[in-house]
Each structure stands twice: as C-alpha cells, then as structure tokens.
Amino acid sequence: MSRTIDYGNLMHDAMRSLIRNVLLDVADNGLPGAHHFFITFDTSHPDAELADWLSDRYPDEMTVVMQHWYDNLEVTNEGFSITLNFGDAPEPLYIPYDAIRTFVDPSVEFGLRFEQQEDEEAKTKPSSKPTDLPQTDESELEVEETPAKAAEIVSLDSFRKT
C-alpha cells in the first residue's frame, strides 16, 4: 500500500484555521476599519444550525454578511456561532468551518473558496440556479452598484528566494 500526502485536505485545514484566527480576533477586538465578511455556507450541513424559515428559504447555501451589526460571536475549534439581523429579526446561527464554501473580505480583496467534493448523483443532477451567483440573504447586505474585484490569487513561488 502506497501512502500519499493529501495536500488538498491539508490546505483546506490551513484555510479553515486562518478563518478561525480571523474570527477569534474579531470576537476579541471587533471588525477593524472597513473590513467585513461575506461567508457562504452549506445550509444542509448536518452540524449547521439556523432557523427553519432560513433553511426553507436557502435549502442549499446561503451567504451572510458580517459588517455593521452582529452579536454573540463565539468561535470554537469546529465552527462559530453568531447572531445576525435578517430584516430587523435577529437570528442566531451556528456555522461549522466544514460547511463554509467561501470566505471573502472585499475591503482588502481577500477571498477563500473551498472546492466541494461532489458525488456522482450531484454531478448528473442539473442545477436550478446559476453557479456563479451565490444566494444571499438580507443580513447586513449592502447592494453595490459596481461588482467587487475578484480576489487576486498569488502563487507561493513568487515568495521563494532563488
């Protein structure tokens, strides 16, 4: 039996650790400056916790925004809980890191996207929504007239000493 290094899962673990560290800092010190987060997550993840009306409205994924108003941010090794405002109705959420699909801070053009492992059935099932537009909710969502720039992907090779 040959052993291989699973770089994909190691990278995902590192990226989730980065998100955890950022959220720990925000829990301790608040959001600095213009920083804010768009977090898209899998609402059908078995450990995700959200109100029934939200999971009914967003059965696959939802994008929440942490910006002006949020409360009760608690960060653990497995995920985080937060209360967000949905049309003047505060709702608590629990989002496991494994459920996160994208994490974006448009104020500094930073973003992470987690590749999803699809089973054969999902690959053959037609999608009912465009794949390039995430579903969003009303929590602190500010509509921008111009689309935000995509995060720049930097190769680690550019930092290596030659």
Average pLDDT, rounded to a whole number, is 78
Counting DSSP E segments of at least 2 residues, the number of strands comes to 7
Unreliable spans are 119-160
General shape:
globular
- Output the helix-strand order: HEHEEEEEEH
Amino-to-carboxy terminus distance: 36 Å
Largest sheet: 4 strands, antiparallel
In DSSP terms (H or I, runs of 4 or more residues), the helix count works out at 3
Q: How are the strands of the biggest sheet laid out side by side?
A: 2-1-6-7
**Percent helix among the residues?**
10-25%
Structural class: alpha+beta
Cα Rg? 17 Å
Estimated share of beta-strand residues: 25-35%
Please provide a written account of the structure.
- This protein has 162 residues and is an alpha+beta fold.
- Helices cover 21% and strands 25% of the residues.
- The protein has three helices and seven strands, in the order αβαββββββα.
- It has helices at 7-29, 52-57, 120-124; strands at 37-42, 61-66, 71-75, 79-85, 90-96, 100-105, 110-113.
- The strands form two sheets. A four-stranded antiparallel beta sheet has the order 2-1-6-7, with no helix packed on it. Strands 3-4-5 form a three-stranded antiparallel beta sheet, covered by helices on one side.
